[in-house]
Amino acid sequence: MKWGNGIFKLIIWIIFSFIFISLTYAGRPRVLSVTMVPPSPNFGQVVTVTIEFCANQQPAELAI
Fold first, then answer.
1. Is 64 a member of any domain?
2. How far apart are the C-alpha atoms of 32 and 52, rounded to whole Å?
3. What's the total number of domains in the chain?
4. Could you say which DSSP state residue 5 is in?
5. What is the pLDDT of residue 47?
6. Does residue 2 sit in helix, strand or coil?
7. Quick one: pLDDT band at residue 3, thresholds 50, 70, 90?
8. What is residue 1's three-state secondary structure?
9. Residue 27 lies in a domain
10. Mean pLDDT of 24-43
């Protein structure tokens, strides 16, 4: 019965390893900085928002 238990542990280890590697490779983008010019706009004034982020190899979408 020890042989079957070892195979079960190996299969579980492979599944968790695959999930972990997949999550680290396809992680969400990390926002490094957000700036707004002018910093305190009046109502109706045009602003420019700049977002600097660290993305992975796939294109990312950020909701603002």
1. no
2. 5
3. 1
4. H
5. 92
6. helix
7. low
8. coil
9. yes
10. 80
Structural domain of 32: 2-54
d(CA 20, CA 49): 34
- Please, are residues 3 and 15 in contact by the beta-carbon 8 Å criterion? no
Distances (CA, A) of 58 to 25, 26, 48: 10, 8, 26
Strand, coil or helix: 63:
coil
pLDDT value of position 61: 64
CA distance 15 to 8: 11
Instruction: Return the structure tokens found at 49.
Output: 């928002």
How many residues belong to the chain? 64
Mapping DSSP onto H, E and C, the string for 7-57 reads HHHHHHHHHHHHHHHHHHHCCCCEEEEEEEECCCCCCCCCCEEEEEEECCC
Average of per-residue pLDDT values in the chain: 77
